[in-house]
Every structure is written in C-alpha cells, then in structure tokens.
Amino acid sequence: MKVFISSLISGFEPYRDAARRAVVALRNEAVMAEDFGAQPNSSQVACMQGLRSADVVVLILGPRYGFVPAGSTISATHQEYREARDSRPVLAFIQQGVDPEAAQKAFIDEVQAWEGGFFRESFRTAEDLHDGITRALHDHILAKAIAPVDQGQLISDASGMIPAERRNQSSTTFLALAIVGGPSQRILRPMQMEDPKLGEQLEQSALYGDNRLFDRTKGADVRLDGSDLVISQDRGTSIRLTEQGAMLFLLSLEDTASRDRMGGFGGMMIVEEVVRDRLTAALGYAAATVERIDATQRLSHVGVAAHISGGEYRAWRTRAQQEASGSSMQISMGQQERRPITLCIRRAALRLDRAPVIEDILVPLRRQFSQG
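Now predict its structure.
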C-alpha cells in the first residue's frame, strides 16, 4: 500500500521521519516529496502526482501554515488535503501544545469540521506521532481486510437482539441499536463480566465520556442480567453487553425543545438531529468499548441493526422543518411493519468511517416515517 505523507517540510523533518518509520514498519511504501528527485515539473505538481498514486494520505499539521505557491491562495499542504479528501482516505494528525499561525488555525478548523468520516488524532512529540500513525494504518488495513465471517448470520444475530415492537402504546419513542461482532466467539469470561471495574468503566463512559449516552444529573444502575452486563437509567434507557462482546443500546428519542414548543404535539415528532446524535454517540461508545474488551482484535466485523420503537403514530422532521411549519403537522395513522435497518461492516469502520455508517442507518430509518 502506498501512503502519501503530507505536511510542511522545512523544520518538520523529525515528524516526517517518524511518519516514514511508521509507514515502512507495517511494510507499506512511503510516498514523500524528499524522494522525488529531479522533476521536469514544479515540486507541487510532483507532489500532486505522488498523492494521486497513493492509496492513503497521512496529513500532519503543526503550528506553521507554510508557503503559498504563486497563483494560489492556500498553502501546498492545504492544496494536497483538498485534493485528497474527496478521493481517498485521509488520516489527519494535529499537533497539540503549540500556537498555530492564523492561517494554520483556519486550516485545522477546516479539517476538524469536515464530516467525511476520516480519522483524526492529536500528537505532541515525534514518538507520539509515530505511534499514532502506526495504530491508524494498522486499523485501516484491518478495515479493508477480508475475514472469514458469515455476514448474513451477523445481521441476523443483530436483528435478533432488537426488542419486539409493542403496538398500540404511546410510550416514549426509543432508538434500539444492536451491534454484534464476528467471527462469533466468547470475548469476556464470566469472571470478567462480574468484575466491578468493567461495570464502573462502562458507567463512567456513558455518563461522562466523549460519547455520553446518559443524563449525568441522574444515577445509573449496573447489574448482571443472567450472563449479560446491563447499565441503565430510569425510563428504559440502557446498555446491554454480552460475553460475546455484543451490545444493545436503548436510547430515548424524546426532544425537550419540540415538547416545549409544540406542547402535546411535540411528543408526536421524531427529530432527525436527535436520532443522528444518538447514533453518533452509540456508535462511538461501541467503538471505544470494543477496543477495551477486545484489544487483540479477535473480532474483525460487526453486524448492526437499528430500529425505532413506539413511533407508529409519529412524524419525522428536521429542526428546520419544525421552524418552517410551526405547530402544524401530518402523521401517518397506518400500522405498517417497520423492520430493523441492518448492515455488516468491518470492525475498524466504527472508528475510521463512522460518518457514512451513520448515514447508511439514518436515511433508511427516515424513510419508514411520514415526513410531517
């Protein structure tokens, strides 16, 4: 695999060398401007040609913006990023503990704001960078690898975790999201499931972590349900973890803003941004949990199933549609069956390609409801 290393060159040599070492240690080919030699074209044209020949781009951003070529309004590295982001995976590494120039800060903000689903990580030293690139490339390789798993069985197992729909009830609308790893095997021993540290770690992540799922003003209950570990709050919100590393999330889709604005009708709405937020947090939580319980990566794929329960008489809107339509709404009174939305992905996609996974779940979910 060819890996193009994009960064400022002058004064950044130790970091580029660390990047090269990480790339070749995994038996990949580093594509770097330093190796191009004499070229009939300009150095930037040569770099663009090198980038287009690569399979992956490693983008390294420090405090300096760099030289802006004649005829352009952005730096060479900035040009390389924009060329790469729509055509190949970008693994971006942003230096911490430095004061970036104004133009570089704007560049960093652009990279961090892009929702293309590529990998972003911070570093401080050259060794931090080396380790981070090694991990990211390793995960990328795993994401593309083919493993001997029964994808149909994974999807079936994930769908089987979704609770049965309870008809004719006006209870709170929930997102049920099941994630099942494969090849199927036991990941956690019974003693590990009983270890209070595991429950405490999962509880803390749900309350205060980067992918918070619970209301931090309320307590959470941690218990064993048979052989499964369950972390729950009131009103049905819960996370279930099995010995096989499978997870089931039950997350309320109640939207306080809609309820306050539309009174009783607010409870009849499914707000797209709320669903997206729940999916984003749950998939992020699942990715972190899988890394914690299966650090040696015995699971290579995951089956995913998503379903919205308690929503048979509800309409789907975005916040913008709410603002435009006021308190009026149309809802479907039909009782059509809504099957879980399913897909099978490589495990590393939970970390590296989460944004497209979210879209592949969200869009089919939206189609199951009237656009009120």
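The two ends are 48 Å apart (CA to CA).
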